[in-house]
Amino acid sequence: MFDAGANATGSAGKRLCRPVAGAEGPPRHSIGAVRVAACLLATLLATACAGATSSGPFDCLSAPPEERGSSSPVSMVLAPHPVRAGAVATLALGVDPPAAADTYMVGWGADWQCWDGRTWVSTHLLEQDPGAGGGRVVDRSPGATVTIPAIGYFLPFTFTLTIPDVPPGWYRIHEDFGARDRGESGGYLAVEVVAGP
């Protein structure tokens, strides 16, 4: 009898299922059908998960080209860019072109986001350091509350921040801006993380 699952392999070329052995035991068609279904499910899962990376409790993918844009009411510039995971980078907000003085304000933390295949999810909180230290990187967990100092800075302002230890790919930094007489608005900057020492 032909066992369709006997040759199923995963993305690493390892055999996911083994051939039906011998004719002993229950009839082959009852076990064979279960093995075929299990092998097909295992093969589909191995294929669907290929290319996914994990960022804590989140399954992240490199964002597709159509999701790599930036949008913000004020300028957001990261240097260097592309950037390496774990590096300290400079984030200039409202500097070039300059934001109107005392119009926009930003807080102590920014969200690091990854693409999960459907939407952007916040995986880390980046403390924005007004000095050269880079600030802490705080992992986010679903449902967890992260507390940061209630400090605000008027733009233009330049911070240093530490890039999370993530695999190479496209991510984004999301900022919430308070605007005088206009409430709060969000902005985001696409970030390419590259491999390196």
Report on this model:
The termini are far apart. It is built from 1 helix and 13 strands, in the order αβββββββββββββ. It has 2 domains: 4-49, no CATH class; 58-194, Sandwich (Immunoglobulin-like). The strands form 3 sheets. Strands 4, 6, 7, 8, 9, 10, 12 and 13 form an 8-stranded mixed beta sheet that branches. A 3-stranded antiparallel beta sheet has the order 3-5-11, with no helix packed on it. It has a two-stranded antiparallel ribbon with strand order 1-2. Mean pLDDT is 75; it is low at 1-55. Strand 7 (109-115) and strand 8 (120-127) form a beta hairpin. With 197 residues, the chain is mainly β.
- Whole-number radius of gyration? 24 Å
Q: What's the total helix number?
A: 1
Number of domains: 2
CATH architecture label of the largest domain = Sandwich
Separation, N- and C-terminal Cα atoms: 53 Å
Structural class: mainly beta
CATH-derived topology of the largest domain: Immunoglobulin-like
Number of strands: 13
- Round the mean pLDDT to the nearest integer and report it: 75
| CATH C-level label of the largest domain | Mainly Beta
- Give the fraction of residues assigned to helices: 10-25%
Major sheet: size, sense and barrel closure? 8 strands, mixed
Strand content: 35-45%
Specify the oligomeric state.
single chain
Described by the principal axes of the CA atoms, the overall outline is globular
Which descriptors would you attach to this protein?
197 residues, mainly beta, Immunoglobulin-like, 2 domains, eight-stranded mixed sheet, three-stranded antiparallel sheet, 1 helix, 13 strands, 11% helix, 37% strand, disordered N terminus
